Task: structure prediction
Amino acid sequence: MNPNIVPIVMPKWGLSMSEGKLTGWLKPVGAGVVVGDEIIEVETDKIVNVVESSAAGTLRRIIGENGKVYPVKALIGVIAPDDVPEAEIDAFVADYATPASEDKSSDEAAPRYEFVDTAFGRLRYAKRGEGDNVILLIHGFGGDLDNWLFNIEALSAAGTVYALDLPGHGQSDKVVSEPSLNWLASAVVAFMDAVGVQAAHLVGHSMGGAISMRAALDQPARVKSLTLIGSAGLGSEINGDYIEGFVGAASRRELKPLLEQLFDDPALVNRQLVDDVLKYKRIDGVEEALRAVAGGLFRDGRQTSVLAGELKASGAPVLIVWGESDRIIPAAHASTLGAAAKTEVLPGAGHMVQMEKAGRVNELVLDHVSD
Amino acid sequence: MSNNPFPLSSEDLMRAYRTMRTIRDFEERLHVEFAKGDIPGFVHLYAGEEACATGIMMHLTDIDRIASTHRGHGHCIAKGVDVHEMMAEIYGKATGSCRGKGGSMHIADLSKGMMGANGILGAGAPLICGAALASRFRGDRGVGITFFGDGAANQGTVLESMNLAAAWNLPVIFVVENNGYAESTSVEYATAVDSYVDRASGFGMPGVTVDGMDFFAVHEAAGEMIARARDGGGPALLECNVARFFGHFEGDAQTYKAKGENDYNRENRDCLKIFRDRVCDAGAATRHDFALIDLEVASLIDAAVISAKNAALPQARELLTDVYVAY
Amino acid sequence: MPPKVGVIANPISGRDIRRVIAKANSLQIADRANIVVRLLAGLAACGVEDVVMMPERGGLAGHALRQMAQSAVRGNARFPSVSFIEMPVTGTAADSRIAAKAMSAMDVGAIIVLGGDGTHRAVAAECGATPIAGVSTGTNNAFPEIREPTITGYATGLVASGAVPKEIGLKPNKWLEVRIDGGPAEIALVDVALVSQQNLGARALWRTETFRELYVAFADPQLIGMSAIAGLIEPVGRDERHGLMLRLAPASVAPLVVQAPIAPGLVEPIGVEQWRRLPAGQPIAPDLAAGSIALDGERELTFHSRQNVSIRLVENAFDTIDVAAVMRFAATKGLLRERNKACV
Amino acid sequence: MTRKISFKTAINEALDLEMTRDPSVIMLGEDIVGGCGAPGEADAWGGVLGVTKGLYAKHGNRLLDTPLSESAYIGAAIGAAACGMRPVAELMFIDFVGVCFDQIFNQAAKFRYMFGGKARTPVVIRTMVGAGFRAAAQHSQMLTPLFTQLPGLKVICPSNAYDAKGLLIQAIRDDDPVIFCEHKNLYSAECDVPAESYTIPFGEANVVREGKDVTIVSYGLTVHRALDAATTLAQKDRIEADVIDLRTLSPIDWDTVLESVEKTGRLVVVDEANPRCSIATDVAAYVAQHAFGALKAAPQMVTAPHTPVPFSPSLEDLYIPTADAVVAAVGKTIARAKAA
Result:
């Protein structure tokens, strides 16, 4: 088989994804593509997103039809250099067999998510990959481990990836007994203890970034590096209206415009994403937990803990990634650490930069954690 | 008041009289005012039956609940509902017990344990079973009293409620105010077995008939029943034989009554006279004491009527409010 | 002229507070009407064709008439014709008195009374020389005997028609008379109790701490009520010429305590200070200065310290039909047999 | 955490959680425990279809089996609610409402208004609705319109286990009388449901599928028929339907319906109730009045026929609105639009 022939397949975003709907071709047949070009748009039960090209060449075949649903890894199109003969392409397409859905294989029959009991309550997490190099993904305020939908799989190339639901979030227990960065950072360390991780690269998004910083400052031996994505803790500005609105929103109507602020492209916020957040928010105790955390960390529209100074002094290896059009925490905070960090501000991305520009973020993180 | 042979303190005797007098004057006055055409809709007057409501309610506090009937003014007053608010309600005014949205047949004050007069005959019986059940769950020793007439005693809801109360041993007293007429139809005609006490027997609960025009008879019998129910002794039925001095509703020509029946009852069976004579004869109070109360009540009713007439009507927006607690 | 018999069945009887403070039974209207029908059948069997009843609005007569009409439709009716006295109905015990007086005036041969002690007392007070036959509507009472009403109807018919002579069929009864300040006498057929409670309330007696004096015409240890207290101390027969009087006190302070069934299912310790026979004819003034007077277990009168109360046992006060004697006589004389001429 | 459980289990779980959380929650109903006073086991049934099974073991005499006497115990539940309890009464089948309607519509529904805002009656009446159970004319009706018509009542009819749990918890916490309709043919349907307590606010419809061509509005069991129809339409005709599950009929989420119709210009309402004065007519009339300009075709209604529910399976299957009928109704809105 010609190694230059590269399939475009239905991606697997997140543990629960088994199929996706092809909602648009972003390139015509015959178009030249480079790595990172957006090729197709896919809608899952979680989100709409684009699939970027992993190879350079020409879009030789368009196989997937707009509006149709395909299983994960199904062949959607083919990219190959111009010099590959048509017959070879046809043979490739004819021979392509969609790998059996991993969900159905025996080792995946176990629950998709796991739970572990800690002094901070029962915490849910996901785990992918293996090896001693551990990456721990920490979501932000009001988020959950599915915020790493487009990252977990890719990052597992570098080792073992854990993503957890913080206390009061996702499907973890809805108890935040002390709404402080210290308490939340202790919860993260307790989680590492519980799953037997001595030290990890912490990747934190938004509030999760501030928690990672706190953990690195409190327990430097447990933190190998920091990746701070659209992170809190680097300056005092934060979108207070968003925080307040998010805590109070009780209906789809109220929530949707808020969630749209998280993305550069508001069209990414589909019905299911809003529903999932609503379902979380309606659970008893969530509103109280969020209100407490918001009160503790983001009182009156200001961040109460700015750790930039301490972090700079600590000399920890830090990667900072930001979405240029972040409407929650200004992208200006990206430069707070100056030369003490690697910094990249991505255009065409908002606060959920790890979702909107997943490919680039994954590259940056992989590079950072394998240093 | 040196000699008081009654099982009520002197204060309570006077309180009972004041209550009965207030009910009587309230109703007599409505009779007059209604005829003038100032009162919307229709009213059912309780005059004549005062001893029944009062004799029972003297044993109750705000934790005890009552479910009343279409003829509910007497029950309301005896249970402590504010007379000014009642009068305003009957006039359909914003200052009424129900802000003018209920009217004569729906006066309620849950804070006083008055769960509402009721335009649906017999409908209070299941409600009061629920009130009694709530008291049992809360352990507050509250008792529920449901009033109904000889007519509503034939409603299935009442009979079903008796069964429920007996089966669950609820602290409920079923009070039949038997004035002999279901609207215009006689008990004899409408009721296969004319005794309401027999209904109680059918559900294995004690039933007692008393002269409902004799405050002391009602008071003592009700007291025993209520105490028994409060202690967990179960439900009971009290039939009070009473006479209503007016028609079923105001404007009723009462041609179904025997000639002279109202006059006979007013002359010989007036619970206020009977009460006053008995208390005075025993030397527990003087006619002067009663006269003072009569004056005081008369001015209360005067004031209530004047303020009700002068009170504001509900504002138009009230039409749409309070359908739900949360919209 | 064929005999006429009166029937007084007052639906208001048997509805008092003893259903709550004790376990007194409550004989339903339908059952009482059934008793009336059985009485009537017994009367008819002895040739009584006319029965006059007290009118009431409690459904008793209505129910009885309905039952008789239902039997008539099916062709198996044998009942006297029933008429009603013209009188206003008040729905109180006063109705019984008015009816008894009227029946006595119209010369009925006998009055059958259906009810408890209270109804019998009302009728006895007004029936004059007319004999009465009692049918108990329950076991809550002391005066009327428990008996199948058909047989009472038989016996009453036999006496009313003259088939059984009065010397055989009737027996005299005592009663107790109570007067306040020499006014008209109120009577009691079984007992007069004086209690310290000076109000009538729901009438029945159950607050034993208020019991002070008890006067009984007879005292049977097999019966319940106030007279049971006396019956357990010293029984006195209905035919004995004396009664009994007792001074009572709260059980906690009395020298003697009797566990007495003062109402159905209600057994209470009653303190007794002293007792003695009550001779007939002699007015007695009670010691209690003020209180109320219960006649046959129901508070009926109150009195205060400025009033004089007197109590007197009266012999041969009224006649009742001796059902046992009548039936024995009738059987012995063959009054209820006849030869079947077809078989001769 | 979230797992797949059935509609029936979701109801049971909601009741259990609320009884645990709030001591004023009590339950009354016929056979909700089952076997009370009988010689066999306690909790013999746990409801005639086992919905309340196991709750007696946890909550004991806070579950009261009642005499077969709806008027008395529904009334008692309402009375207890007016006195501060939060009773959940089970009216086994909604068809039984005939013998206790007075207590619901003349008492519970009116207390607050009639008493000038001084009363609150937080009672929930859970009741089974709907056809398809071969239960014939008196155990199969969809009487939701009857209650929706009455001010003072809230009327809920969930279509899935997730909604059932969240709406029932909301109903129990709500201070107004709620008629909670459970479609008996949905009892075994499973979906992802959090183990925790959660609430779904009343008056918020759920858009269960998004599309641009036609709006299909439904509730209860027929939401699934509407979804089946939408799938068929998308596959066969490339017609994309917005499918709206009303979830709560009173209050009703007009905004979501209107927004959708403004987008699609076409409306089909699917209602298992009889056609006259139904949810279908209500929605159609409201849309006609408030979004007439947006309509490209006359609104269509897919309902049961104007008959009692028949017994024979062959007839009953014709009674309940089918996906095919929905597809046909959508077809009419498209055809009309083209003709115009």
